[in-house]
């Protein structure tokens, strides 16, 4: 028996618009995005190989290819930005942030990555990969450091990757810059999604009377 339901209906309503559409797509239609996301969440929660994904999720090759595609074409970043913007518009984010980092051990196959300055095979990825592939040598071997800014509710608002041996302080400035850019983008999104409403004429007249000022109708009559 597998655990599903990681993606609630409420969350799905938010992230569905950020996922690729079948419109204009040639060939087969996408396999159900929600089922694939559930499978990807299951795989990373259990740490199982892709080949061991339960058959209820569909072919493991489809799951891996979708994960690989979304990692490179910006879909995951679009999901993150969309959820962040919707939560901010709903007033659920506290923008007093804290910074921290954690180190992740690189996969054993990362030892074969091209060295800095060498691009290796061509790629269609839209997410630009750092020259060092965010992999470096530290006491734990080949590692990657994840730098995060979190709001007052311990929700991530900005993420950056660096080589494992990189210090936290040198990454703080670009992290703050990214945080400032996100704040500006979220402000623009909020203004476009929820434009301020001009007060009605009834409200203006009532306010004028309360303040002792003549209304436009009174001025015309006078």
Question: What's the arrangement of secondary structure elements?
Answer:
Layout lengths: L8 H7 L17 H14 L13 H14 L1 H15 L8 E8 L30 E3 L2 E10 L5 E8 L4 H26 L7 H10 L5 H6 L1
Antiparallel strand pairs: 1-3, 2-3, 3-4
Distance between the termini: 81 Å
Biggest β-sheet description = 4 strands, antiparallel
Tally of DSSP helical segments: 7
- Percent helix, as a range, is 40-55%
Shape: globular
**How much strand content do the residues show?**
5-15%
Secondary structure tally: strands: 4
Which regions contain 5 or more consecutive residues with pLDDT less than 50?
Answer: 198-211
Order of helices and strands: HHHHEEEEHHH
The value of Rg in angstroms is 24 Å
Which structural class do the helices and strands define? alpha+beta
Mean pLDDT: 74
Task: Walk me through this protein's architecture.
There is one protein chain. Helix 2 crosses helix 3. The protein is an alpha+beta fold. Strand 2 and strand 3 form a beta hairpin. Strands 1, 2, 3 and 4 form a four-stranded antiparallel beta sheet that branches. The protein is globular, with a radius of gyration of 24 Å. It contains seven helices and four strands; from the N terminus they run H-H-H-H-E-E-E-E-H-H-H.
């Amino acid at each position: 028996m597998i655990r599903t339901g990681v993606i609630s209906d409420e969350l799905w309503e938010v992230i569905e618009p950020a996922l690729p559409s079948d419109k204009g797509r040639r060939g087969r239609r996408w396999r159900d995005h929600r089922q694939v996301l559930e499978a990807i969440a299951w795989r990373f929660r259990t740490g199982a190989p892709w080949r061991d994904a339960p058959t209820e999720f569909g072919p493991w090759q489809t799951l891996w290819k979708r994960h690989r595609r979304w990692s490179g074409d910006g879909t995951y970043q679009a999901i993150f930005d969309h959820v962040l913007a919707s939560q901010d518009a709903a007033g659920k984010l506290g923008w007093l942030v804290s910074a921290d980092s954690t180190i992740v051990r690189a996969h054993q196959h990362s030892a074969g990555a091209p060295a800095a300055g060498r691009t290796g095979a061509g790629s269609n990825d839209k997410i630009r990969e750092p020259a060092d592939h965010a992999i470096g040598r530290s006491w734990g071997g080949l590692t990657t450091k994840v730098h995060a800014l979190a709001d007052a509710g311990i929700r991530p608002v900005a993420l950056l990757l660096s080589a494992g041996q990189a210090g936290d302080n040198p990454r703080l400035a670009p992290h703050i810059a990214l945080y400032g850019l996100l704040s500006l983008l979220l402000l623009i999104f909020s203004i476009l999604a929820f434009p301020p409403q001009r007060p009605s004429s009834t409200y203006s007249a009532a306010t004028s009377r309360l303040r002792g000022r003549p209304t436009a109708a009174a001025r015309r009559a006078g």
